[in-house]
Amino acid sequence: MIEVTKVWKRFAAPVLCDVTLTVPTGCLYGLIGPGAAGKSVLLKCLAGLLRPERGSVRLFGQAIEALDEVSLQAVRNRVGMLFQNNALFDHLTVAENIAFPMRRRGITDESVIAARVADRLRAVSLAGFEQRLPGGLSGGQKKRVGVARATVTRAEVVLYDEPAAGLDPVTSQKIFDLLRREQQEAGATVVMVSSDIDRLLTVTDRVGMMLDGALIFDGTTAEAKGSLHPVVKQFVHGEVDGPL
Amino acid sequence: MSAEPHAMERPQGPAEVAARRVLADARELQGVFLRTLYWTAKGRREPGEVARQCFEVGYRSAFFLSVTMGFIGMILVFQSGLQLLRVVPDLTLLGATFLELLVRDLGPTIAAMMLATRVGAGIAAEIGSMVVTEQVDALRMCGVDPVDHLVVPRFIASVVMTAALVMFSGLVSFAAGGATAWFVFDVQPLTYINFSLLDRGDLITGLLKCVAYGAAIPIVSGWCGLTTRGGSEGVGSATTSAVVNSSLAVIMLDLVLTGAGFVVFV
Q1: Is the distance from CB of B230 to CB of B119 less than 8 angstroms?
Q2: Nearest chain A Cα distance for residue B58, angstroms
């Protein structure tokens, strides 16, 4: 379970304002909202990459904002993450990028690593790309390599920041379906930020909507679709007229 | 929504803001330093990574450093010779004096300043660009401390190669100075090569400086890289900061170690 309690975070201006949120174990939670609403910052707080100035983020029962960098590593070993800009390591091949989290978690059996990498590449339709460098991939291919790396360790918690950005509609739907299937098979708790609302809502169990750093809606996918909150209604249904 | 807690805090003056920033920077730098030592002792190295960094720091700096130190040797011997001739018309100790100065202070310090510009800038730029493309965050999410993965190999390579480079470039500098002494002041090589003023204190102080500078440059530059903010502009600022702060660290360490060497060995 992920528990966020009264979290505040600011840079030049406040980006998270009193956010309280609970994601049950095994839930696929979709985080939606307009640009600069604080979604990616909240995701980074969940990963312990950013520390909130006030409030608490509990992962696996531990308040991670209180942990030092070395202790945080043990927590992060149980978390996978896909970054908005993919964050692939430039100097490593596709196969090495995907294998990297496994090696760093102490898996040394090369046959296990090779089999898992091949499985991930097949899952994201990139079989045969093992020896390519990230610089030679298209934006969509990089995104898929990022998805493969985020899911390679079968982490208990997986955080996705825009998993379908830059992908065509067909590939995008395939990625969402893949992530849903992975989540169900592993029983993982997933938090997914995406601007592709229509496809996101086909796979989520629960949805939260952020606006100006605050969580203004938290409920099931069905509740989100039927919400009468003017902002949520306008955003979920993509209406032009409304408060946004 | 509750009221923002920061709105309740009292406003801070510019001096207080600057002081807080310096303290925060010092804490961060100390954190990078301690984590570097911790992971040097306990970390797991990627095969060949330290060797690759030794090549980057050592081999790729050797020519630049040798040329620079060679010219500095020529200039210093030429200027020292001119000054000495004004006082006493005897240049028999020109080589011995220059050698003592080179071993004890000038060799390590000038070479380290040169390394700070070349190696420090490279470290900060490489790590800084990884920060702005979220690769450092990705490392952290793979259970890797960026200090362990990025700073420690450069730290080990820098400590080893700085000592080697200082010795090699010092030799070049002394030889270039000897050539100047011979051609300009007619000081014969056998007279110039004089170890009589060199003692144990000079060697230990010089070696300690090599190790201290070699350690300081990657730690300071790595810290500048890891604290990069923003995009390419941030990488530029981090690179500039790395050169400035590494050079400053070298000068400050020089003062401390020279003082300590004087107290212990004189």
Answers
A1: no
A2: 21
